[in-house]
Design goal:
- The chain is of the alpha+beta class.
- It has one domain (2-347): Sandwich (Jelly Rolls).
- Helix content is 27%, strand content 17%.
- It has 13 helices and 15 strands.
- An eight-stranded mixed β-sheet has the order 1-2-10-7-12-5-4-3. The chain has a four-stranded antiparallel β-sheet with strand order 6-11-8-9, with no helix packed on it.
- Helix 6 crosses helix 7 (197-203).
- The chain starts with 29 loop residues before the first strand and ends with a strand.
- It binds fe (ii) ion.
- Residues 242, 244, 300 line the site of fe (ii) ion.
Length: 416
C-alpha cells in the first residue's frame, strides 16, 4: 500500500491524549454496523438498528457508527497521508487551489469556491466574525465515485495526491457503497419504505453521469492552533455553527474535545465525545428536506481545545455524501406512510427545488463577510427558496418565516 511513503516522508499522525476534563459529552446512539446483515431472516436486527438511528436522527441529527468494517491500519495510513498533504507549503498549495485565496475574492460566476472545488483551501480563506479569518487548511477531493477521479489530465493533483488516488478512492467508495447504503436502508425502515428506496433514488452511483449520480466530496481537514487574540475575538469558536448541505456526513472520530452540536430544541451546545475507530455521522439539509424535517440537520461547530489538548492539532477525514443533483428537496416523492402518519408534508413556503439549486447557493454563503461578519454567534440568515440557509430556529414553537423575519435580520439571496 504505502509504496510512496518514504518519497513523501509520511509519518504517523499523533493524536491527542483524551482530555481529563470533567466535561460530559452528549450521549449519541452508537450503531454497531457489524450487526447489520442482509436477508429477510435478519430483518428484526435491522429494525432494531433502525429504531436506534431514528431516536438520534430525529432529535440530534447525529449518530456514531462503530465496527464500520474499514481496516484500522488503512485508516491510519490515510491520516498520515492527510498530514503529509496538509503540510504542503503555502507556495506549493497555490498551484492546486480549490478556489481563490479568500472567499470574498472569489468570482462565484466562474468558480464553485474552496468549499466545493477540488484542491487546497489555505488558512484564512473564510471570513469569521470581528474581522478574524479561519485557521484551517483543507484539501478537497471530488468525484471519487467516478472513473473521472483517476484522470490525472483532467484533474490538477499535486504529486502526493496523484500517487495515492487508489488509497483515497478505496476509503470513500467504501463509505458510499457500504456504510451509506446501510444507513440509507435503515432510514428506509424508519420511513416505512422498501429497503433500497433512498439509495436507489438519491444516492446510486452511475459512472459517467455526474448530475444524475449520487456522490460526495471528500475532505482532509487540519485545524492548527488559532492566534490567542483572534480566538478571543471569535469567543473560541474556530469553525462557526452551520448545518451541512448534503445527505449524510461521515467524520473520523478523534480525541480532541472540539466538535459541538447545538440542540435543535433548546439551543444548548454539547461536545461530541470520542469513539476510537468510529465515525461521527450527521444529517445534512438534503436529508432534512427529503424527510420534511423529521431528520434534523443540526447546527454544529468546532471550538478551540481545552488546556490539556492545546498542544495538539485536530485532523479529520470527512465525507460529505450528496444525493444526485436532480432529486427534489421535499418529502412529496417519498410517499412515506410514516411521515404521513406523523402529519409531515412539504411546508407551503418551501419552493420546489432540486438538490443542485440548494447546494450551489448555500455553499457560496459560508465564508462571505456580508453574511458572517456579525457581532453574534449566528450568521445573518439568508432566505433561500422559502427556507433559511442555516437551520438555527426551525424547532421554535412559533417558527415561521414571517416570525423569523421579525426577530432576525434575514437577507435575501440577491443581496447576500
Ligand atoms: Fe459541518
Amino acid at each position: 500500500m504505502p509504496v510512496a511513503a518514504s518519497k513523501y516522508n509520511l509519518r504517523p499522525f499523533v493524536e491527542a491524549p483524551l482530555s481529563s476534563s470533567s466535561t460530559k459529552p452528549i450521549e449519541l446512539e452508537a450503531i454497531d454496523l457489524s450487526l447489520y446483515k442482509e436477508g429477510p431472516e435478519n430483518l428484526p436486527v435491522r429494525k432494531q438498528l433502525a429504531a436506534q438511528i431514528e431516536r438520534s436522527l430525529s432529535t440530534y441529527g447525529f449518530i456514531t457508527v462503530t465496527n464500520h468494517g474499514f481496516p484500522v491500519e488503512k485508516l491510519d495510513f490515510l491520516k498520515s497521508l492527510a498530514q503529509g498533504i496538509l503540510e504542503t507549503p503555502l507556495e506549493e498549495q497555490k498551484k492546486y487551489l480549490a478556489g481563490a485565496l479568500k472567499s470574498d475574492l472569489e468570482d462565484r460566476s466562474v468558480s464553485v469556491g474552496a468549499e466545493r472545488g477540488s484542491g487546497f483551501k489555505p488558512k484564512g480563506y473564510w471570513s469569521m466574525r470581528n474581522g478574524v479569518e479561519d485557521s484551517i487548511i483543507h484539501y478537497n477531493f471530488n468525484n471519487m465515485q467516478q472513473s473521472l477521479f483517476f484522470d490525472t489530465e483532467k484533474n490538477n493533483y499535486p504529486d502526493i495526491v496523484k500517487d495515492h488516488l487508489d488509497d483515497v478512492a478505496e476509503y470513500y467508495r467504501f463509505l458510499h457503497g457500504d456504510v451509506l447504503r446501510k444507513l440509507s436502508n435503515l432510514s428506509d425502515l424508519v420511513l416505512e419504505l422498501p429497503e433500497g428506496y433512498l439509495y436507489e433514488n438519491y444516492f446510486k452511483v452511475i459512472d459517467g453521469d455526474i448530475p444524475g449520480s449520487g456522490g460526495g466530496a471528500g475532505r482532509f481537514m487540519l485545524y492548527e492552533g488559532m492566534d490567542p487574540e483572534d480566538s478571543k475575538k471569535v469567543e473560541n469558536t474556530w469553525l462557526r455553527g452551520h448545518s451541512d448541505s448534503g445527505g449524510f456526513t461521515f467524520i473520523t472520530s478523534q480525541p480532541i474535545l472540539s466538535l459541538q452540536i447545538r440542540d435543535y430544541y433548546t439551543g444548548e451546545w454539547s461536545y461530541v465525545g470520542h469513539t476510537p475507530n468510529g465515525l461521527i455521522v450527521n444529517i445534512g439539509d438534503a436529508m432534512e428536506f427529503i424527510t420534511g424535517g423529521y431528520f434534523k440537520s443540526s447546527i454544529h461547530r468546532v471550538v478551540g481545545p481545552l488546556d490539556d489538548q492545546k498542544e495538539y492539532r485536530r485532523l479529520v477525514l470527512i465525507y460529505f455524501s450528496k444525493p444526485n443533483d436532480t432529486c427534489i428537496m421535499d418529502p412529496e416523492p417519498l410517499k412515506s406512510p410514516k411521515l404521513e402518519r406523523l402529519g409531515i408534508s412539504k411546508p407551503k413556503e418551501w419552493e420546489n427545488i432540486n438538490f443542485r439549486a440548494w447546494n450551489e447557493e448555500k455553499s457560496r454563503l459560508f465564508g462571505k463577510k456580508k453574511v458572517n461578519d456579525t457581532q453574534s454567534e449566528e450568521p445573518k440568515l439568508v432566505l433561500l427558496y422559502g427556507r433559511l440557509h442555516e437551520r438555527w430556529h426551525q424547532a421554535e414553537a412559533d417558527f415561521s418565516l414571517e416570525e423569523a423575519q421579525k426577530k432576525f435580520e434575514v437577507i435575501r439571496l440577491d443581496a447576500a
